[in-house]
Amino acid sequence: MELKMPLMVVFLLLLFITTVIADYLRPLPRKDLEFHWKPRHSSHPQQVHISLAGEKHMRITWITEDESSPSMVEYGTVPGVYTSVSKGETTSYSYMFYNSGKIHHTVIGPLKDNTTYFYRCGGQDLEFNLKTPPSQFPVTFAVAGDLGQTGWTASTLDHIHQCNYDMHLLPGDLSYADYQQHRWDTFGQLVQPLASTRPWMVTQGNHEKESIPLLKAGFESYNSRWKMPFKESGSTSNLYYSFEVAGVHVVMLGSYADYDEYSDQYEWLKVDLSKVDRKRTPWLLALFHVPWYNTNKAHQGEGEGMMSAMEPLLYAAGVDIIFAGHVHAYERTKRVNKGKSDHCGPVHVTIGDGGNREGLAHKYIHPTPEWSLFREASFGHGELKIVNSSHAFWSWHRNDDDEPVQSDQVWITSLASSGCLMDKIHESRKILLAP
Prior knowledge:
By secondary structure, this protein is α+β, with helices and mostly antiparallel strands. The chain is 20% helix and 27% strand. One of its GO terms (molecular function) is acid phosphatase activity.
């Protein structure tokens, strides 16, 4: 008892610091969703979600309460007919007074492109289906960060469900569990209808950290539940990785992993970008949580350290679009670099408006900087349809409107087709290939 009391005091203090202290006032939060417990067999697969796991492979993740349940996925292209089987690995974790279920990660493949597969987990009768991404253009990404578990979240997910997309990109802040581990479970239940059918590629935000000084390192829950293809991309950390799909190279970076020029993440990024073949993947995207170009008063300047270290790398590599979250609003910039418009820089999109319980960030800096094109404090999601090697159509959809209503839209031309990359050859070699 003497040991437990100080631990509880530390825990409550951390909760206060992470949820109360802020440098701006938020509007009243949207009501959290209620999740009613339903009796299930202990081996029943729960919280099923999928992600890419290297070329032509997919990782199936699910949780069971039964420790003896096998980490096995049976799959095929016809409902109820499973012509292939894969076995995987398991993990679990404890957090204060919480013990997770058995977390299964099983990689299936090789899989055909743009094909629907039917699968079941752990030998159970419940059947799921997934659709693999295409190998050629067009390819469509749904984009929404800072989701949480509110009525607004449910609206966002409903809008995304109406979108004919191939993959979901999420730039951090998933469950908003904030140390309450059961909320990781309810988040998994909430997103399963979508996340079990299309790959969800995510990176971490501040709400995933959940560290307790001297007791718990950060990101244990996140890393245990949302395993991304970091090993497949040569990374040593689940907090940053890359993948390729249908002519697009996507870099997922960690705003809360070390990023200075002596860090493992920085060195990995240099190597990863130096290997990108723009003839094979003419589009280059990057995602991370804390925005670098932000005209909202919320979280103003928080991305400056990472920007100072990594913007030269991304600029030299010719990144086309950068997505970030953290700020609970939407904003799109011109192509920009070093704090001003640059026709060879990336377009920055802040899209931390998925529906979290903290509400929207309404206050903006005035006058508006010349590089900011569109900004609005509304919940919503984005859709990026890359039509071919040179053109993509970006649209943002407010939750207040029907999904077909495009609140912001723009055609974007790739840097690979603009001549900018030819201008960058010397600079990129100097920066990306430097020892």
